[in-house]
Each structure stands twice: as C-alpha cells, then as structure tokens.
Amino acid sequence: MKPLHTLTVHEAAALLASRALSPVDLTAHFLARIERLDHSLVAFLHVDAEGALRAARQAEAEIEAGRYRGPLHGIPFAVKDNFAAAGLPMTVGSRVRAGQVPAEDADSVARLRRAGAILLGKLNTWEYGTGNANISFDLPTPPARNPWSTAHFTGGSSSGSGAALAGGLALFTLGSDTGGSVRLPAAACGVFGLKPTLGRISRRGVLPNCYSFDTVGVLARCAIDSALVLDALAGHDPHDPMSATRPHTPLAPGLVPDVRGLRVGWVSCGGMPVQAPVLQALGRAARALEAAGAVVEPVEMPLPPSDYRRVSAIINWSESFAIHREDFLQHEDLMGHALREKLLKGQAVPASAYIDAQRSRRVLIERTNELFERFDLLLLPTAADVAPLIDDEAAVRAFTVDAATHAFSLTGHPAMAVPAGLWKGLPVSVQLGARHFDEARLLAASAVLESCGVPGIVPDAVLDAHCDHRAMAPQPALRLAARHLQDDVLTAVRALPRPDAREVEPADVHWRGQWDAAAV
Predict the structure, then answer these.
(1) pLDDT tens digits along 459-469
(2) Do the Cβ atoms of 126 and 462 come closer than 8 Å?
(3) Cα torsion at 493, 157, 300, 255 (round to 10°)?
(4) 437-440-443 Cα angle (round to 5)
C-alpha cells in the first residue's frame, strides 16, 4: 500500500469500502502529519483531533456493520476558516472575530458530514477570506506556506487549503473563490482547484465576501476526486438566494478522460504578462487535448483578462464594504492592513460606478456565452507565472492581480486550475473554463490533462528540508491614507471598461437561483 497521505480520495475510498483500511488509522495518520509538519506550513488555524477521531470511530463502526455511505465515508478533509463548523472556532484569520464559535455547520460542511467525511479542522486564510492582493504579515497567525518551498507564496485567499492538500495534511480541502481564491492556491501549490458554476453549491454558512461572485470551491489531487466531492456538495439550498434550482446529475460515476470531438478555444491573453513556463505548459496542454481528439483553435476573449478584473474589482470592493460595514466602523483598529484597505476602497466607490460595473458584467456574461456557443471549453493560464517569494510584495500582487481567474468569477462560468508540471521546483498551472453547469466536460478535459505532468503530493524530503523556514517578523499596523485610497478608486473608476453597456440593465445580483445556461 502507498503511504496513506499520498492516496487519492478514490483510492482511499476503495480501501475503506473493502475494509482493507480503517478510518481510525487513516485519520490518525493525518493528525500525526499535522502535528509533525504544520508548524512549518501553518496550514491550520484550528485542529479538531478529538472530533475527528470520534467521527472516524463512528465511520469504522458503520462500515463494519455494512452501512457504507459512499466514496467519502471515512475520508479526512479540512475547510477554510470562513466556513462554519458547529462547535469549532471561526476566526476567519481576524482579531475582530476571535472567540466566534458557530452553533451550526455551513451547508457544505453538513453535506460532507452526511456523506461520512471526517473534518480535521479549519484552515488558514487571508483575513475575512479577502484582501488587497498583498501579504502584510500583521494578522494573528502567520500566512500559510507553500509546501514546495516555504519561502514562496501559497496564493490566496484559500491559502491553507492549498498548503494542507499539497503537504499531505488532508485528502481534499474546501475553499471559497471570489476572484480566484481557490484556483490561485491550487496553481501555486500544484493541485486541482475547481470553481463550479455560480450557484451550483450553497454558500450558506460561509462568511460572505462579495454576493455577486462568491463560490464554494474544491481543492483535490485529481479530476475524479474533484467530481466525487462536487457530487456530495451540489444541490439547491432554499436558504441561499443564489443557489441554482437546476438539478445536479452525479458526475463521478461516468467520468472518463474523453474530449473527442470537443472544440477548445486557446485564449490569447493580450495584455497579460504570461511568463515562459506558463506559455510552455499551455502549449503542452493544447497538444495533449488535440492528441485526445479535441479540436484546438486560437481565440480572444471579449475583453483581455485584466479588463474583466477592472469590472469585478468595483463590484467586489463595493459589496465587501456593504457586507462588513459594521465590523469596519466598530473594529477598524483590529483589522489588518489588507482588509482595511479593501473596505476603505469599497466605501469610496460611487454608486454610479457600481451600476456601470454591473451593466458591463451583464454584457460580458452575454459575450462570453456567445463564445461558448463556438467552443465547448476555453484554455488559458491560471496565473501568469509560478508562485513568487512570499516577501516580494510586488511579485505577490502581480501573481494575484495579473491572473486570468477573474473572468470566470465575473461571468459565473465553471473553471478549473489544472497542474501542468514543475519549473525549478515550483508548480505550473493552466486553467479550463466551460459553459454554465457543464462541469462534466470541464472535469473530463481536466482528467485528460493529468497526463501533462501533475506534480502530485510534495515529497516528504522536500517538506523536511523546509521545517525551519524563514520567520517573518510581525509588522505594526499601518495607518491608511483615506484620501490616497479615494484617488486610487477614482483612477479605477475612470479605467472601468464599459463595453457598450451604458444603457444595459445591470446583472441581477441574486438571479434568484432560476437562471440556466441559456438565461443568465
């Protein structure tokens, strides 16, 4: 048998179902790895060893009694600390919410528990699961570290979710994705990061960041694992106004790496500073899809990826301030620099700019849907480069801001970060996008691309070499110049792309869960 932490979910599930592996032994193995390695990776904010072992003993008893619930029964996982888990702290990486302990699970956590999965604990995150694309080293807990090199960035904001999975501290993790916060940690840490269609998974019990874009996402080691977890999570929730009523057909049972006859648009990323390792990975991915029977053609998005971000930034800043206004007004002094800067920007956005951005969003949704009438899938970068050094402020910001993830957050289309090899010991990633609710083709193509060079779990020898990473001294809280930030916002508003959208009604922020691929 392989070392337990190197198993995929479906490999572990087969062993658990056949009783060749005990859920208690599997859970204890991960708890021991967390104890040994997490002081270096800082992936967890809270470990629930007692609760995990209690759940593992229950899973073992049920499986022994013939009451096997399915492929997640007995599988250890962890969630970003903006997900509620009954009885566990939910600090969202902030001094403001220290001591907060929810009484109920988030819908996604509850669904996984019902499937028999075992929650190991809560994972590191940027404060409130958001930020300004910078690491300021001024939060209660140091930032999570990249298992491939702890001197390098993990991506964010689901930083612990990427680090825990790549470091072999869980078999899968959950994060939230507003502009790339699942896909960027997946890219930096060399794992699969799935952002499903907006509304596919309930967000109830996840601290909101931006109503228009927030999506629960899955980080896993392969496409079939991603499908297994998505199948457990997908479904309508009447308590989430964005939750789609469209039924979800389980994908994992029929998932095969088959793209024969599919049309794939290889996106030109004009204006995006894509570096050589990523360009080479895109070429390998295109050739792999062609070899598997797909037709790959060059294509341009309606706007360059950077312009999608300019639209989404105005919406994101505005909605984040509206959501967290009371926390900001009462506890600004307890917040880190990145969160305060973002909320101050949101406070300064004119209402007219928010409406203009929502108008542009609607046009971009329609134009991107038109693109998907020509193509089944789009292939483009996830980030423009591999993970930078974590203390290189400009490079960290570029990795986040110059990413191509914002487009599918703005439009609500499903997208997946797919590992595509290593460059100088650091993972390289490509991204696939698909039509609304077409996660089936997205996952099938991702399975094809596994042959391009999935890095896999970080070897223990690499992890052990990083056990004494460079400690970053906590920085003092910075005073923010509100006037300077207002000038930044006005500059962003003036640069806001308005693609023939001035007379268009804004995108419906809630969509009431009734929309489908033909009627967004």
Answers:
(1) 888 887 765 55
(2) no
(3) -150
(4) 115
How would residue 481 be classed by pLDDT, with cut points 50, 70 and 90? low
Question: Shortest CA distance to 391 belongs to which of 140, 149, 181, 180?
Answer: 149
For 457-485, b where at least 16 C-beta lie within 10 A, e where not — what string?
bbebeebeebeebeeeeeeeeeeeeeeeb
Cα gap 244→138, rounded to integer Å: 38
Q: CA-CA distance, 147 to 5, in Å (whole number)?
A: 14
pTM above 0.85, yes or no: yes
Q: Give CA–CA dist 266/328, Å, rounded.
A: 42
Q: How many other CB atoms are there within 10 angstroms of residue 496's CB atom?
A: 16
**Is the sign of the CA dihedral 62, 170, 467, 47 positive or negative?**
negative
Catalytic site positions: 80, 157, 181
Distance from CA of residue 341 to its chain's centroid?
Answer: 22
Higher pLDDT, residue 483 or 443 = 443
Cβ contacts of residue 470 below 8 Å, gap of 6+? Answer: 150, 151
Q: What is the pLDDT of residues 43-80, one digit of tens each?
A: 999 999 999 999 999 999 999 999 999 999 999 999 99
State the Cα–Cα distance between residues 284 and 214, nearest whole angstrom. 31
In this structure, what is the dihedral angle of CA atoms 295, 301, 302, 303, given to the nearest 10 degrees?
A: -170
Which whole-number Å values give the CA distances from 361 to 270, 379, 418, 435, 438, in the listed order?
20, 21, 26, 16, 21
What is the Cα–Cα distance from 286 to 489, expressed in whole angstroms? 38
Q: What is the DSSP letter of 357?
A: H
> CB count, 10 Å around CB of 196?
29
